[in-house]
What we know:
Catalyzes the transfer of the diacylglyceryl group from phosphatidylglycerol to the sulfhydryl group of the N-terminal cysteine of a prolipoprotein, the first step in the formation of mature lipoproteins. The chain crosses the membrane at residues 37-55, 67-87, 107-131, 138-156, 200-217, 229-247, 259-277. By secondary structure, the chain is mainly α. The protein has a domain at 12-221. The protein has helices at residues 19-25, 39-61, 68-91, 116-134, 138-163, 199-221, 227-243, 259-281, 310-325; strands at 16-18, 36-38, 170-171, 195-196, 253-254, 257-258. The strands form 3 sheets. Strands 1-2 form a two-stranded antiparallel sheet. A two-stranded antiparallel sheet has the order 3-4. The chain has a two-stranded antiparallel sheet with strand order 5-6. Helix 2 (39-61) crosses helix 3, helix 5 runs parallel beside helix 7 and helix 7 runs antiparallel to helix 8. It is globular. The relative contact order is 0.12.
Amino acid sequence: MISALSIPSPGEEWRAFNLGQWLRDIGLSWFSLDITINAYALCILLGIAAAVWLTHVRLTRRGAEPWIVLDIALFAVPLGIIGGRIYHVVTHPADYFFPGADLLRVLYIWEGGMAIFGALIGGAVGAYIGCRVTGIRFWSFADALAPGLLIAQAFGRLGNWFNQELFGLPTDLPWGLEIDRPNAAIPVGLPEDVLFHPTFLYEIVWNLAGAALLLLIDARLRVQWGKLLGGYLIWYGVGRSVFETIRLDPSELFLGVRVNVWAAWAAVLLGIIIVIVQRRRHPGAEPGPYVAGRGWTPEAGVDSEAVYTETDLAGKDAALVAEKSGAPSATSGPAANA
Length: 338
């Protein structure tokens, strides 16, 4: 039942707009191209931009060359998009493979359909390649990226709202989501005024809260060696395992459980393993964001702070750790490529 607090969904006219026509309408009559901008694609791009910017800030503070994150993103972003799309198509085969289906729709990512777990796998492969090329330590990059991942995912869920997809089960809660009919995900026979759980909003709130928590933990504890990435996997996996169970869209099942729930549980397990293993393997501080022999030194006068080599950075981190523990500090040498 629609209430005063129910959440309306954007109409069809909000899902895409013609950039060329808009430019002509404001007086740029010479612009003759018709460029369609999809809200879903725009949300994805804004999320990527936000994650790249935040990662740049965090990685630079760790001693990396400014904007080296762009070199890594050249590998991570395309492979992340490809991985996310492949995972979605594989877990929703009925949406793309049926008699008379247009198989090219498999490529139409602007229509919606990106799976974060596939994007994480593809993006991780791309990030590893980018880190190898740039000399950045993979775990340093992963920790710098972790909060930005949650922010990017929040933007992506906003795109789902524009597409009126991935909503939850029917609900009589006052903040239920209004969905236009017809919609293939709505079971036949439900009344027209039924509201649905706004799972997009639940996940946006959860992701933003997780990003804030990771930033706070890192600010207080200087989390390194991939342990912040482990925290991200645990936080996101726990939330996703809950939200996935109330989603209404069809999904492949394994042993009666949605595939994405299994993936969420796997993310939690992997996060726990990363935290435990990395704590045992690397009890000390990272010797800077670069692997041995691949450091970066800013030109004299460019940076107002002192120029540190990789060994110097190790000494600084060790001193900070010792200061917090009350133990005397000692400089450690560069660690092996993580």
